[in-house]
Specification:
This protein has about 200 residues and is of the alpha+beta class. It is built from five helices and eight strands. Strands 1, 2, 3, 4, 5, 6, 7 and 8 form an eight-stranded antiparallel β-sheet that branches. Helix 3 packs across helix 5 (about 120-125).
Length: about 200
DNA sequence: ACTAAGATTCGC
DNA sequence: CGAATCTTAGTA
């Protein structure tokens, strides 16, 4: 399982390095193939910019804590709190299904592997992640944690998806060429280029 | 109390 | 392209 110090770095670094790691939830798991970084300061798209409860979460929880919220009255979104000199969240946007694929198919009601976890709302449904996971410490929970992935492949960068503020920040990271990414980039980032920092 | 907006997904 | 459906937060 990834130790606490993994999450004691800035959100952009954590988001990029979580791509390729494995997410395990009970008997189910998948490889993280897409993430986004949200910075608790100076990022108008981060929940901390307009939600006092998010600021309280950042202040009161340890790095590695799961930040799970309900979106559009329909879908759960999984984030991980990261904290160093800068704090923020990493949104988990897509997985490549690994273990428990039949369970995921049952939970999602679709058979196609590419449809199981190719979106932030899809993967929580597939793995059974809900509000009861909110606040759980992913550095000490044997049933809900990240671990090192197989090998690192090349990672691409793009603008974040589905937000209406701070749209210029290239803080989305995804495994190049992976079939389980949520969708093609709004504006394709160049592989190997360092993303902008604050 | 009432209203608005939202890091999405699916179906028409 | 629009509905689904609910939580948080701002305003009265």
């Amino acid at each position: 399982m990834l130790e606490r110090c993994f999450f004691q770095r800035d959100p952009v670094t954590c988001a990029r390095e979580l791509v390729g790691c494995k997410l395990t939830c009970g008997m189910l798991s998948g490889i993280v193939v897409e993430t986004e970084a949200y910075d608790a300061e100076g990022d108008d798209a981060c929940h901390t910019a307009f939600r006092p409860s998010a600021r309280a979460f950042v202040g009161g929880q340890q790095p590695g804590a799961a930040y799970v919220y309900f979106s559009y009255g329909v879908h759960w979104m999984l984030n991980v709190l990261v904290k160093a000199e800068r704090a923020g969240f990493v949104l988990i946007r897509a997985l490549e299904p690994l273990e428990g694929i039949d369970e995921m198919r049952k939970a999602r009601g679709v058979h196609d592997l590419r449809q199981l976890c190719s979106g932030p709302g899809k993967l929580t449904k597939a793995l059974g992640i809900t509000g009861c996971h909110h606040g759980r410490d992913m550095c000490s929970d044997a049933n809900f944690a990240f671990s090192r992935g197989p090998a690192d492949r090349s990672i691409n960068t793009s603008l974040r998806i589905g937000i209406s503020r701070a749209m210029e920040l290239p803080w989305r990271f995804y495994a190049a060429g992976n079939l389980h990414v949520s969708r093609t980039s709004p504006k394709e980032g160049r592989a190997g280029v360092e993303p902008a920092r604050l």
